[in-house]
Amino acid sequence: MVWKRIYYVDSLPQKQQLALQRYRQKLDHVIDCIEQNESVIRLIIKDVEQMFENVKEPASSENNPTKSDVIASDIDKVQVTFKQLYRDWSQEGAIEREMCYKPIIDEITSIFSPDHCRTEDINILVPGAGLGRLAYEIAKRGYSCQGNEFSLFMLFASNFILNKCHGIEIYEMYPWIQQVDNNLEIEHQAAKVKFPDINPADLRQHTKNSKFTMVAGDFLDVYTYANEWDCVATCFFIDCANNIMTFIEKIYKILKPGGVWINIGPLQYHFSASPEENSIEPSFEVIKDIINSVGFKIQKERTGVPTLYSQNPKSMLKYVYESVFFVCCKPDDGSDSPTVGRVNNCSGRMTLLE
C-alpha cells in the first residue's frame, strides 16, 4: 500500500508534487519503519518451531515451507501484535495497563492477601492472556499464575518477550506505521516505541516458589478438570466467544468451591459481524442473569469503567470503552477440598522463564 501511494504521488502534476514534498518524504520514512518492524518479526519467529514442549514438528520441507501466500487477515494480526506489544510491554502503554490490569491485580491482592495466605499456593488462570503482561504481573506478586492464549501470533511474541528478552528497551518498533488516518503531525504515524519497558527476566527475583507458565490452545478445549483454580482473571476476553455462556459455564466448572472470577472489559462480541460464524450477543443485563443461573454469586459490580485498548495516544480518533468490572464467587458447598488436577488436551505448552 505504501508503494501504491508513492507511485500515485509521483504521477501527480509537478505543482502538486512540490506541495506534497513533506508527505512524499514521509512515505520514504514509512518504508524504513516497516523494514524495522520486519526485523523485529524475524527475531520473534526465530526458532519458534521449538517453542512448545509437547509438540515436535517434522523437519521436512512439506511441513516447514520457506514461502507461502500472505493473506490480508494475517497482516491484520501482525499489526494487532505490534499494538499489543505497545500495550503490554512499553512505557507508553502503562496508561492502558493502569486502566485495565490494575483493578484486577488490586482485587487479587485484596482477596488473597499475602498477609493471610501463602501466595504461591494460590493458582490463578488468565485466559486470553495475549502477550502475557497481566499474568506476569500477577506472578510477580508471588502467585502461581498461568496464561492461556489461542493465537499463534500472540504466542510467538509472548515467547520472545518472556524467554528471549534480557534487558530494558532493547528493541524498537513502530506500532502505528500502518495507521494513515487521523494524524495531526507526520511524526505521529511513525512514532517509535521501545520495548520491553522492564526486564522480564527479573521475575525470578520476585518468584521463589510460585510458578508462571503459558499454555497454548483453545480455552474451552484445554481446561477440562473441575475445581482446579482459586481464581480466574479475564480482561477483554469473554466477548471473544461465539457463545458467551460456554465461557461462563467453563469458568464456573474449573474454579474451586470458594474460588473467584474477576472480569473487566466491554462486550464487543468479536464474531457478531462475521456472516460465516455463529454468534450471540446478550446485553450485560442478560449476562448477569446467566452468571446467577450458572451458580455464581456476584460480589462486586461497576459499570462505565473507562478503558483503552491499543490506542495511539496522539491520534485524532480514539475509542474509549465504558467497560464492566465485576467479581463473582463460586459458592463453597462444604465438600472436601477438591483434588487439584492438571491441564490436559493442550495444543502446545510453553514453560516460561526457566
UniProtKB/TrEMBL annotation:
Keyword S-adenosyl-L-methionine: yes
EC number: 2.1.1.22
GO BP, sorted A to Z: methylation
GO molecular function list: carnosine N-methyltransferase activity
Broadest EC class assigned to this enzyme: transferase
Keywords on record: Methyltransferase, S-adenosyl-L-methionine, Transferase
Gene3D superfamilies from the UniProt entry: Vaccinia Virus protein VP39 (3.40.50.150)
Family that this chain belongs to: Belongs to the carnosine N-methyltransferase family.
Protein name: carnosine N-methyltransferase
Species per Swiss-Prot/TrEMBL record: Ranatra chinensis
